[in-house]
């Protein structure tokens, strides 16, 4: 491994701890969480199966269904802007440098990432190509800043950790009635042997938020359901200041993830199968919701603020 700077050494010693012993997998806990989660979601599985329907579940649908059911039912409110485009490009470029071992400057890595993303995503390509030149330039400039912070603060990863970027994994309920989909930014170690060897990390270009914790706990739950062994740690690494938040995965973490995920599954299934009208829950998300101009939520939120 190349010589590390002080920030990278701190990440190795405090977060990644390459050479430390890992906790043993508690298979009783795994079975307890699996059984409880299956029991709590059985009604949803049966209702969906009876209607011949499949329910895809990921971090976004869980978050949205729990925040505002109407926004979840509407779906499809994503649109590209300079901020999320730069964040996505920075992630792809950092992956090329940290895991793909691309020998390039952040500027060149960003150019390569943009080229790959334009090939894979026509919407992203149109956002860059069909907008004003200043917008594309801002995406490139912000991306280079983010990538520089990531690669200067996060250490190179040894091959023995089998680093994977954006590895998708899936667990199912009721055959394939409920599909739980997870895709962390970075996965290290294999779910094999008696020890919990895996570490899941999300790379962030913004500031800490509770949703980051919830998303990682969901990843840990799906990882456990998929391979029968949870990761030993989940973490978010924040590029701007090189800080991180981390949790070692134990029964409490998995129980919290299972409760939150099952609550969302039951809500979504009630709306899909029982035709219960979705609730409107005014909140900060109203500001950027695609329904903001027609939904009564923003108006009621404004009225509450006035009082």
Structure description:
There is one protein chain. The chain has helices at 6-16, 27-40, 42-50, 59-67, 69-74, 82-98, 106-120, 122-129, 133-153, 210-227, 251-273, 297-306, and strands spanning 55-57, 164-165, 169-173, 178-182, 186-188, 199-204, 233-238, 243-248. The protein contains 12 helices and 8 strands. 35% of the residues are buried. Helix content is 52%, strand content 12%. A hairpin with a 4-residue loop joins β7 (233-238) and β8. The model has no long low-confidence stretch (mean pLDDT 91). The chain is an alpha/beta fold and 307 residues long.
Short recap of the structure:
The protein has 307 residues and is an alpha/beta fold. The protein contains 12 helices and 8 strands.
Output the keywords:
52% helix, alpha/beta, 307 residues, 5-stranded mixed β-sheet, 3-stranded mixed β-sheet, single chain
Q: Given the C-alpha coordinates, what overall shape results?
A: globular
Low-confidence stretches: none
Give a short account of the largest sheet. 5 strands, mixed
Helix content: 40-55%
Q: Helix and strand string, N-terminal first?
A: HHHEHHHHHHEEEEEHEEHH
The percentage of residues in β strands lies in: 5-15%
Structural class: alpha/beta
Helix segment tally: 12
**How many strand units?**
8
Estimated radius of gyration: 21 Å
User: Residue-averaged pLDDT, rounded?
Assistant: 91
Cross-sheet strand order for the largest sheet: 2-5-6-7-8
How many angstroms separate the termini?
59 Å
């Amino acid at each position: 491994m190349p010589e590390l700077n002080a920030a990278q050494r701190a990440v190795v010693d405090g977060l990644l701890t390459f050479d430390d012993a890992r906790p043993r997998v508690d298979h009783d806990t795994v079975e307890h969480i699996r059984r409880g989660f299956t029991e709590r979601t059985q009604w949803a599985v049966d209702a969906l199966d009876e209607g011949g329907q499949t329910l895809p579940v990921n971090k976004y649908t869980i978050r949205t269904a729990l925040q505002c059911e109407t926004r979840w039912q509407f779906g499809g409110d994503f649109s590209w802007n300079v901020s999320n485009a730069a964040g996505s490009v920075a992630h792809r470029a950092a992956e090329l440098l940290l895991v793909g071992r691309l020998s390039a400057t952040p500027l060149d890595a960003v150019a390569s990432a943009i080229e790959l993303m334009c090939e894979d995503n026509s919407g992203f390509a149109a956002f860059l190509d069909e907008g004003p030149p200043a917008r594309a330039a801002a995406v490139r400039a912000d991306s280079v800043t983010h990538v520089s912070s990531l690669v200067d603060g996060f250490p190179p990863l040894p091959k023995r950790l089998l680093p994977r970027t954006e590895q998708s994994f899936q667990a199912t309920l009721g055959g394939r009635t409920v599909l739980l989909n997870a895709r962390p930014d970075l996965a290290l170690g294999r779910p094999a042997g008696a020890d919990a060897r895996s570490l899941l990390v999300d790379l962030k270009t913004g500031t800490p938020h509770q949703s980051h914790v919830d998303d990682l706990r969901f990843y840990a739950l799906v990882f456990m359901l998929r391979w029968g062994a949870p990761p030993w740690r989940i973490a978010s690494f924040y590029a701007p200041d090189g800080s991180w938040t981390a949790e070692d995965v134990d029964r409490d973490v998995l129980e919290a993830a299972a409760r939150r995920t099952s609550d969302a599954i039951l809500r979504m299934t009630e709306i899909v199968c029982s035709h219960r009208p979705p609730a409107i829950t005014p909140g900060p998300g109203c500001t950027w919701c695609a329904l903001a101009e027609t939904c009564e939520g923003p108006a009621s939120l404004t009225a509450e603020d006035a009082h």
